[in-house]
Amino acid sequence: MRVLVDSWAWLEYFQKTPRGVQAAKYLDDAAVEKITTKINVFEVYCKLLRENGEMAAKNAVGAMLELSTLDALDLSTIQMAAEIKKTFQAGMADAIVAATAMKENAKVLTGDDDFKKIRGIGLIFLE
User: Fold this and answer.
1) Smallest Cα–Cα separation from 118: which of 107, 126, 127?
2) How far is CA 98 from CA 29, 54, 56, 62, 77, in A?
């Protein structure tokens, strides 16, 4: 199974919330191929830097890079993301995540309701 781990799932995982425990079932499973995007790294780093400090942010990014493969954002993915943004009125980061998941044939691991409006992607929704 391939999953693209959204920022939402990463943050829940690092904060050890009940939904983070659900996310851990995928993140800690060696049989699951995990992918993340550079925009997810950016979002997680910014939030943790602001709320928990530089060390927590750096440690989280280190864990993200250890547990998942960082996707290379190419022009075709950017173009697909722009179409998703236009068609579904998605935010930029969500559109990039959705396009990357489509390109990688992966399901998006998230709890962010905004992904529910984007047709054509598989979701593993944490509730």
Assistant:
1) 107
2) 22, 28, 27, 23, 9
User: Alpha-carbon distance 12 to 112, whole Å?
Assistant: 11
> Are the beta carbons of 40 and 10 closer than 8 angstroms?
yes
How many CB atoms are located within 10 Å of the residue 83 CB?
Answer: 11
Spatial separation of the C-alpha atoms in residues 90 and 59, rounded to whole Å? 29
Report how far apart, in Å, the C-alpha atoms of 40 and of each of 57, 71, 98 are: 13, 10, 12
Q: Is the pTM of this model over 0.90?
A: yes
Closest CA to 34 of 101, 118, 85, 92: 101
pLDDT tens per residue across span 91-107: 999 999 999 999 999 99
Could you say which DSSP state residue 94 is in?
A: H
What's the CA gap between 56 and 123, in Å, rounded?
A: 28
Domains in the chain, please, with CATH? Answer: 2-125 (3.40.50.1010)
